[in-house]
Amino acid sequence: METMKTEYDTIVIGGGQAGLATGYYLQQAGLRFLILEAGPEPVGSWPNFYDSVLLNTPARYSALPGLPFPGEADRYPARDEVVAYLRRYAAHFKLPIKTGARVSKVERLGRLFRVVTAGQGHFLARTVVAATGFFGRPHRPDLPGQTKYRGQRLHAADYHRPEPFEGQRIVVVGGANAAIQIGIELADVAQVTLATREPIRYRSQRLLGRDIHFWLAKTGLDRTQWLGDRTTPVFDGGRYQAAIAAGQPDRRPMFRRFTAEGVVWSDGAHEAVDAVIFATGYRPHLSYLAGLGALDQAGQAHHRRGVSNSVPGLYYTGLSRQQNAASGTLRGAGMDAKFIVAQLKRYHQAQERERNSGPAHPQPVWLARSNELLVLISLILFALKGQLAGAWAAAPKLVGEALVRLLILGVGSLGYGQAAGLYSR
After folding, report:
1. Rounded to 10 degrees, what is the CA torsion of 42, 47, 53, 59?
2. Distance (Å, rounded) from C-alpha 383 to C-alpha 405?
3. Is the distance from CB of 11 to CB of 123 less than 8 angstroms?
4. What is the pLDDT of residue 4?
5. Which of 175, 196, 199, 372 is most buried, judged by most C-beta within 10 A?
6. Taking the CB of residue 413, how many other CB atoms lie within 10 A of it?
7. Is 196 helix (H, G, I), strand (E, B) or coil?
8. pLDDT at position 297
9. How many whole angstroms separate alpha carbon 240 and alpha carbon 177?
10. pLDDT of residue 403
11. pLDDT of the residue at 159
């Protein structure tokens, strides 16, 4: 168990794709850091996905920074290939990772963060990167009647292969890639319906003979919020749309409610159902930050582009749409991590300047803002000169404005001084 005497520049919470990419750039920046991973190895959530899952991004666009994804560049890697790549990535760069270190809370300890784990001790760091990503908490909608339902109700995170559902009546809830892939796979062994709130939105997997991600990379759209809303399209080469059009599986509007035996559809018809699988996405698992005031009431992070709005020195990588449409994905982890480490490095440099200046001879705030003071003094002198010249109407207004601005400057200087000293103690 590590003692609290060790102080790191940065603690990264999470050793999946986001944490590994962050570790790469921290290593490049020469910072002293440690990655804490809750699981037995640094592969994130990938081993928990269903067996047949494939990336919808070709291997050439699925690499983390500094290490190409192995194999044929235009294929779509399978789950186990991604797991093997992440394992190799951590070993290749010799990233400092402590596994079996589930973080229970992060708290402030003077100018440092104290990161508390279950069973692996406490760690001190000047900055923290929450890199637990977007797949830590399966989202299960609360639907009418679901507690009465006697069938099997599970999330896509609990689904692995179709064989246990052979011959059953299944409803898959959701209209994104995971729902479509699971629904089509199950349709080979069971009677399956996709239940969606909106029509399925397909995007062609290939354009002019190239995968769509080639064009996203070339045009720079992958570095923007190129999808205006929060829904995710289904990337399809034609197979998915053809299967659903043929009723394998069929698609219906979302059902109204559960009953003990099944569901009531939007047209009022009741149908017995053996199992309902929610392919309804995930939410960030960030409860360990709750004590810092870093989260809103829904448990979502207060941040702008991964930089905490409420806690100086706290950063995020791996959140969905953190910066752009690729954020939260394997292909976007490097972009997010590069930006965050640059911001984090600037924060460290500012802290070092503050620490090196020392509390004994701090620069007066009024001296740092002397130009503004000179302008205001000039304004008062101009007002007095106006009085002497007989501009009686203008002079009081000018003097009043100058005094108000001096008051604002004084209050602002006090706030500036307090903020500058907040983390130098």
Report:
1. 20
2. 14
3. yes
4. 53
5. 175
6. 17
7. strand
8. 82
9. 9
10. 53
11. 96
Is the bond preceding 65 in cis, omega lying within 30 degrees of 0?
no
Query: Using a CB cutoff of 8 Å and minimum separation of 24, what contacts does 113-122 make?
Result: 113/11, 113/313, 113/314, 114/4, 115/11, 115/13, 115/36, 117/36, 120/1, 120/2, 120/36, 121/1, 121/2, 121/3, 121/4, 122/2, 122/4
Pairing of strands 137-138, 282-283: antiparallel
Pairing of strands 122-130, 314-316: parallel
Q: What is the mean pLDDT of each run of 10 residues along the chain (425 residues)?
A: 73 96 97 95 91 91 95 94 97 97 94 92 96 83 94 95 97 94 96 95 86 80 58 82 95 97 96 97 88 86 90 92 80 92 93 72 45 51 47 46 49 38 33
**The pLDDT of residue 375:** 46
Rounded CA-CA distance 134/316 in Å is: 11
What is the number of other CB atoms lying within 10 angstroms of the CB of residue 231? Answer: 11
Which residue reads 């002293």 in tokens? Answer: 32
- What DSSP letter does each residue of 349-412 carry, written as one string? HHHHHHHHH-SSSPPPHHHHTHHHHHHHHHHHHHHHHHHHTT-TTHHHHHHHHHHHHHHHHHHH
* Predicted pLDDT of residue 203: 86
Q: What is the pTM of this model?
A: 0.78
Rounded-to-integer distance, Cα 27 and Cα 92, Å: 13
Amino acid identity, position 337: A
3-state DSSP assignment of residue 35: strand
User: Of 328, 326, 331, which Cα lies nearest the Cα of 301?
Assistant: 328
Cα dihedral sign, 204-205-209-212:
positive
Single-letter amino acid code for the residue at 111: R
Q: State how far the Cα of 176 lies from the Cα of 194, in Å rounded to an integer.
A: 10
Q: Is 407 exposed, middle or buried (0-12, 13-18, 19+ CB in 10 A)?
A: exposed
Q: Which two tokens stand for residue 225?
A: 């919020």
Output the pLDDT for position 391.
39
For the chain, how far is it from start to end, CA to CA, in angstroms?
28
CA of residue 192 relative to chain centroid, distance: 33
User: SS3 helix, strand, coil % of the chain, rounded to 5?
Assistant: 35, 20, 45
The residue among 417, 312, 306 whose CA lies nearest residue 369 is 417
How far, in Å, CA of 355 to CA of 278, rounded? 52
Structure tokens given for 153: 């109700």
